[in-house]
Amino acid sequence: MKLIFLGPPGAGKGTVAQKLVDDLKIIQISTGDLLREAVKKGTELGKKAKAYMDAGELVPDDLVIGLLKERIARPDCQNGFILDGFPRTIPQADALAAAKVVVDKVINFNIADAVIISRLSGRRVSRKTGKIYNVNPGGIPMPPPDMPKDELFQRDDDKPEAISNRLVVYRKQTEPLIAYYTKKNLIINVDGNRDLGPIAAEVKKALGVK
Ligand code: ADP
Fold first, then answer.
1. How many angstroms separate the CA atoms of 48 and 27, rounded?
2. More confident: 139 or 179
3. For 81-98, how does the pLDDT look when each residue is reduced to its tens digit (9 = 90+)?
4. Contacts of 78 (CB under 8 A, 6+ apart)
5. Which of 9, 38, 138, 139 has a Cα-to-Cα distance from 119 of 20 to 30 A?
6. What is the pLDDT at residue 12?
7. 178 pLDDT more than 90
8. Could you list the active site residues?
9. Contact, 118 vs 16, CB < 8 A?
């Protein structure tokens, strides 16, 4: 099964994908994670991508398309995958089609800006484990009270200036993909304004997974 998770930043795509991979026996591919890994390792791609990411801009299509194609060619993708955060532009979607990737369904997360802002501004990441917490309520665990303050950090693109830019970028560059995949009859809409547990349950039901 090959799925695309579409929706604004903070819609819960990554968290819901993690809840589904075991049940579907497929893997999650997050281009955001792949890019952050490249930045951390200091690869050529990472060096080029960093400034765009910190500002909440999209990384240029050619870089992301190359990265994604390389990833889906690996053997662990044979059973299928959830693309989380790709495609984010029409040219990226065209590149996927040109690579003969047959998409089964596109899950579209609908969510209000106020909910997005609360989730993104509250997101904190553990330096030690990479685990994600949220200081605002919404179904993601709060950081444990005994966790040392300096273990947690906030992503640069979760800071207020970058959040508003990411929303603008989403509406302009990514939202047109809803019409693109609606034409192909692939869209399943889910209400992303709820806690993540019920959202994951709804997605499973829509896909016919128990
Ligand atoms: P979120 O979904 O919370 O915005 P991601 O982790 O998916 O965060 O992405 C973080 C950043 O990585 C994006 O703001 C963008 O700069 C870059 N990025 C991720 N995926 C893509 C993509 N498909 N095309 C261009 N840039 C991307």
1. 27
2. 179
3. 999 999 999 999 999 999
4. none
5. 38
6. 85
7. yes
8. 13, 88, 123, 155, 166
9. no
Q: What pTM did the predictor assign? A: 0.88
Closest CA to 129 of 158, 153, 146: 153
Ligand 1 pocket member 53 (CB < 6 A):
yes
| CA distance to 55, 58, 123, 147, 197, per residue, from 40 (Å) | 17, 18, 19, 24, 31
CA-proximal residue: ligand 1, atom 14 (nearest): 56
Confidence at 10, pLDDT banded by 50, 70, 90: confident
Verify cis geometry, omega within 30 degrees of 0, for the bond prior to 160: no
Q: Is 7 close to ligand 1, i.e. is its CB under 6 Å away?
A: no
How would DSSP label each residue in the chain? -EEEEE--TTSSHHHHHHHHHHHHT-EEEEHHHHHHHHHHHT-HHHHHHHHHHHHTPPPPHHHHHHHHHHHHTSGGGTT-EEEES---SHHHHHHHHHTT----EEEEEE--HHHHHHHHHHEEEETTT--EEESSSSSSPPPPTTS-GGGEE--GGGSHHHHHHHHHHIIIIITHHHHHHHHTT-EEEEE-SS-HHHHHHHHHHHHT--
